């Protein structure tokens, strides 16, 4: 009797998708944990929160249920969808979009929307992706449409952070004594 190769291929593709999603959630969790260890409050989108928290391997879990921000509804809806936010007090310090298999463009667009809606915000933005997607991140950050923001080109406000860099930083034994500026040593500018 002939085997159904279509069903076998579909099962392999489904497994591959689950592994990719799992890796993305793992990195999102690492970013959240690093920020928490540095003393930041953490925001995770509601649709990712349960998966990220189940991956979280720590007792320290300062995840906010609600953003303590006073922005208009459009800005808040944009901010709430960003993969990981680090907050100090009522201010967003850093924003991260993890782009494992999804379109890099969608994460960058969310960052551009944030800067377009609130050009006076002083937030460090990061696109986090596997090293194999590094050039694609830079290519998207340098798109002409993103050079026209009131604050200046997005490539000047948003950097690339590799999965490997996140994993390396997570191994740092003294995260609680470090400032978030340590990320500048691990991230790469688009220019």
* Content-based structural category: alpha/beta
**H/E element string?**
HEHHEEHEHHEHH
Largest sheet: 5 strands, mixed
Q: DSSP strand (E) fraction? A: 5-15%
Instruction: Report how far apart the termini are.
Output: 58 Å
Helicity level: 40-55%
- Give the overall silhouette: globular
Strand order of the largest sheet: 1-2-3-4-5
Radius of gyration: 18 Å
Q: What quaternary form is this?
A: single chain
Number of strands: 5
Number of H/I helices: 8
- Which parts are unreliable, with pLDDT below 50 for 5 consecutive residues or more? 7-19
Number of structural domains:
1
Nearest-integer average pLDDT: 84
What is the fold's blueprint, element by element?
Layout: H1 5-37, E1 41-43, H2 46-55, H3 73-80, E2 84-88, E3 91-98, H4 104-117, E4 124-129, H5 134-141, H6 154-157, E5 158-162, H7 163-170, H8 183-186
Parallel strand pairs: 3-4, 4-5
Antiparallel strand pairs: 1-2, 2-3
Helix pairs in contact: 1-2, 1-7, 3-4
């Amino acid at each position: 009797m002939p085997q159904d190769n279509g069903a076998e291929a579909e099962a392999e593709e489904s497994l591959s998708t689950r592994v990719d999603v799992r890796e993305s959630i793992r990195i999102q969790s690492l970013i959240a944990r690093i920020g928490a260890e540095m003393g930041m409050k953490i925001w995770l989108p509601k649709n990712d929160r349960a998966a990220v928290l189940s991956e979280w391997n720590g007792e320290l879990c300062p995840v906010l249920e609600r953003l303590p921000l006073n922005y208009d509804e459009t800005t808040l809806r944009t901010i709430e969808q960003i993969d990981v936010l680090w907050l100090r007090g009522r201010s967003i310090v850093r924003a991260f979009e993890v782009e494992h298999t999804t379109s890099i463009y969608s994460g960058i667009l969310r960052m551009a929307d944030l800067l377009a809606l609130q050009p006076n915000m002083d937030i460090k933005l990061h696109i986090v992706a596997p090293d194999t997607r590094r050039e694609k991140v830079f290519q998207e950050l340098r798109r002409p449409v993103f050079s026209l923001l009131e604050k200046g080109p997005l490539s000047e406000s948003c950097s690339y952070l590799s999965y490997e860099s996140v994993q390396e930083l997570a191994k740092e034994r003294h995260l609680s004594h470090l400032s978030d500026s340590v990320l500048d040593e691990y991230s790469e500018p688009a220019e």
